[in-house]
Amino acid sequence: MSTQAFKYHFAVVSRIPNSFKDHALRRKEPDQPIDIDLARRQHEEYVETLRRLGIDVLELPHDERHPDCVFVEDCAVVINGTALICKPGAPSRLGEVAVIRQTLRKELGLKIAEIDKEQATLDGGDVLWTGKEIFVGVSKRTNIMGAQAVAKAFPEYPTMTVMVPNEALHLKSYITVAGKDVLAVGKSRIAQQLLQSISESATYSYKTLTLEEDTAANTVFANNVVVHQSDNMIPKSFPVSQKKTLGSMNQISPMNQTAATTLQTLLSSTVQN
After folding, report:
1. How many beta carbons lie within 10 A of that of residue 232, not counting itself?
2. Rounded to an integer, what distance in angstroms lies between the CA atom of residue 204 and that of residue 206?
């Protein structure tokens, strides 16, 4: 895998609505109430980090009707100038898709692919593209028909399914790309089970960066830089992420993150005519 596969020029993010504090979907209640002001400061820091990487960031206005609109990744899968518009598995999130479709088509000029099966569900958080192949987590939010839509939209890449346990949310809650042929993965039972499933079906081999906390595997690899959380959020994993040699890439840890926010972006390279 060439790092050029993860060379990006544009990113789409969404600002955080007030409704995020009390009405966003979550697997469990946080230990402390979400601090909306802190979440917004963290999001601004994240956006600034993307800009420092040379990425032109398009910020969508917050939409109070959709508390989860900050999680833009779930609304589209963007690979090589094609955007597959998702059908989120949570009915309350279906209304988020229209603005993402319009932005990717009109602002970035991407080729738009649609899911043609009515019963299909697909969250972008279940789609892991390694630069060589695609793994789709079949989860509470993504079904087999959604995975088939990914394979149809990106026929140039082998596409494999991975079963995500019911107690988990998304595949990429546990595994993300963290460098050239490198997967960051948490150390929990679920994370290691998902990694085993990927290893058994993969057509290529990958190095793994195993981290103590599952949340530490929430990374973004863009323009030869890995963006990850800071030491106060992942105290056990931070030394590993700093010392582990992952080729020639750089590392940056801009986020003083809480459970209220995750690294959420739609990334796109320049469209080639």
Report:
1. 12
2. 7
- The Cα–Cα gap between 159 and 202 comes to 9
- H-run or E-run covering 208: strand 207-211
User: Do 271 and 81 contact (CB within 8 A), yes or no?
Assistant: yes
The CA R_g of the chain, rounded to the nearest whole Å, is 17
pTM given for the model: 0.89
Residue among 185, 187, 182 at smallest CA distance from 171: 185
Taking the C-alpha atoms of residue 118 and residue 272, their distance in angstroms, rounded to an integer, is: 31
CB count in 10 Å sphere of residue 205: 8
Nearest alpha-carbon partner for 221 in 174, 170, 183: 183
∠ CA(92), CA(152), CA(85), 5° rounding?
Answer: 30
Please state, as a whole number, how many other Cβ atoms lie within 10 Å of the Cβ of residue 23.
Answer: 14
pLDDT in tens, 152-198: 999 999 999 999 999 999 999 999 999 999 999 999 999 999 999 99
pLDDT value at residue 241 = 54
Calpha distance 186→198 (Å, rounded) = 14
* Cα–Cα distance, 68 to 219 (Å, whole number): 19
The region, left, alpha or beta by phi > 0 then psi within -120 to 50, assigned to residue 98 is alpha
